[in-house]
Amino acid sequence: MISGTSSWLPATSVSASGKRIQREMVELNNDPPPHCSAGPKGDNLYHWIATIIGTPGTPYQGGIFFLDIIFPTDYPFNPPQVVFKTRIYHCNVEPDGHVSMGILKDGWSPALTITKVLLAVRSLLTNPDPYNAVVPGIAHLYLGDRAKHDDIAAEWTVRFAK
Amino acid sequence: MYYRSSNIAARIFDRQISTPAPGTSVHHARRFYENLVPSYTVYEVECPDHSFRKFTDDGQYLISFSRNHQELIVYRPRWLSFSCNDDDCDKHDLPSKARRFDSFFTQLYCVSLASCNELICKDFFLYMDSNQFGLFATSTAQIHDAPAVGGAVQGVPSIEKITFHLLRLEDGEILDRKVFSNDFVNLTHNMGVFLYDDLLAIVSLRYQTIHILQIRDSGNLVHVRAIGEFCREDDELFLNSNAQDISSSDKNKQHQSTENHVENQMHQGQPHMGNSFLSGIKQRLLSFIFQGLWNEESDDTLRMQRLRMKFYFHFQDYVDLIIWKVQFLDRHHLLIKFGSVDGGVSRNADHHPAFVAVYNMDTTEIVSFYQNSADELYLLFEKFCDHFHVTSRNSMYMNFVSSHSNNIHALEQLRSIKDKASNSSQFVKKMLASLPFSCQSLSPSPYFDQSLFRFDDKLISATDRHRQSTDHPIKFILRNYPHSLKFKIKPGPEAGSMDGRAKKISSFLFHPILPFALSIQQTLFLQPSVVNIHFRR
């Protein structure tokens, strides 16, 4: 049982999920996706913080987005939870910051890794998925008036993600 | 340099025939204070039993509060005059009529500031000398174990009501008031409030917001912006106007709040349920730290390692930092101290980790960020101390307050402490603990100018603080030739106190211009204080 931030079990007795997360950490370190980084918060292997630098050419350009990544204890059999800690204007991000994405729900596969999740979130910022939106208002605007959507999203970035 | 007489007549003659080097005329003029010193003491002056706060920095007013912390009493300092029948009246003692408090001060007015259960915070007073406005605070009692509701920080006490009163000191008219409800502003020694020109920064420790107010010439306190949850003044409005399509439950609350209660509106606007977004100022801070580390290293793998150890590992510690104290550096930049909750409220915060950041409130950018043990920040502090001691534009005389950056003697003193310090990082922390500076905490009196006088700064200094006092008089020795003892300031009764063991606390109020000072000595038992007047006879 992993509790809070205090349990840092010696490497030999780390559970299967812990071993898997450690392996993914090494993998992420060796080959980090561009404009992304992540690492465990404090000494809790199951709670990570990730950072995505807004991709140039998108309305999120210039923003630094922080995300919480929370791994379940039975990882990788269940997906991690990915939550924005930085306000973002995006049709696939719930008003409380939760990222809504197929691979983080039913589309999850144990073959996916944190590197792939980060890449997926990053590409979601470039290409929102308005047909599976959690904020319909933003999706409608994205489909109906792309320029206005981008202006608002850029304004959010300047105000809340710098 | 050739020998100059320290005789006042010779100096006046000298002033007539020679011009001081460019830029030094004020320094030259100030040397006359070596001749004019408050060397005569009137002991145990018969005076009203008030707590005397300070002379305003222009010397126009003496601020005092009634013992029951209900009223503000303002005096105009004046020079005493008395008549004497003899030819040589200098030989005589002062006539008893002249030895009274009211021959030195005229009461201008007495205003009641406290109301209901509020009392005047006698440690708090700020003076805006361009308009001769005074800012006072009254508050109800502190609640220490206040529950952290509505986005409040856990562990910070609460005060039901804090009222700031803006007064025109000329006639004591109350011009405006600002109320903070269920909040906590550190009012001791003006710590939580900073005045620069007409801008006022008030730190709400409880709701982690820096309220920027402007004091208008009309005497109104106008809310300019609140920095904390949001950075720009219209961020919240922007968020709400964009929120029609983002369903959220905590928005409805904002519509209920009335418009004239800015503070409360801010608090209620703070989302509390299930919302874990970083506050505006934290987002800026974290992204500044992140970008610094990101740009330091170009190799991807090394960069990741660096971020993991220096950023993600400490992420929660950064998130948990709270704003302790703030000062203006100029009209756009704030120096903000961040620390843990424990250190924000306690008086001795030296051993708590702390950070300072320079924040530009117009661009909403963090300009720089240092830990309180950073050598780089210490070097800036040592060399450019006066840039931290910012004073409003029109208070030129404050430029002559001695600091280790403008005074060789103060610098020598600092260096000798530094050399003696066994642990350099402890020393740096201790020195940087004074940042950000408290507003208007230094007396501009020339008798504290370290290029004119030498004195024991454990017993007395320009810093407005209560000090433990001894029965020995405090000596002021000429810094220049002939290095002689020029005057002594002795607080308490002339013969020393009856009970040598009783702990005594003294405070000193020096007039900013005249050779004139008050010393107030209190024993810890609730006896009336002993007030001595020191002046040049």
Helices and strands, with pairings:
The complex is a heterodimer of chains A (162) and B (537).
Chain A: H1 16-30, E1 36-41, E2 44-53, E3 64-70, E4 81-84, H2 114-126, H3 136-144, H4 146-160
Antiparallel strand pairs in A: 1-2, 2-3, 3-4
Helix pairs in contact in A: 3-4
Chain B: H1 8-17, H2 25-30, E1 40-42, E2 50-55, E3 62-66, E4 71-77, E5 105-112, E6 119-120, E7 126-128, E8 133-139, E9 142-143, E10 158-168, E11 173-183, E12 193-196, E13 199-204, E14 209-215, E15 221-227, H3 235-241, H4 252-256, H5 262-269, H6 280-296, H7 300-312, H8 315-320, E16 322-328, E17 333-339, H9 341-345, E18 354-360, E19 365-371, H10 375-383, H11 385-388, H12 408-420, H13 424-432, E20 453-454, E21 467-468, E22 474-478, E23 485-489, E24 504-510, E25 516-523, E26 530-535
Antiparallel strand pairs in B: 1-26, 2-3, 3-4, 4-5, 6-8, 7-8, 8-10, 9-10, 10-11, 12-13, 13-14, 14-15, 16-17, 17-18, 18-19, 20-22, 21-24, 22-23, 24-25, 25-26
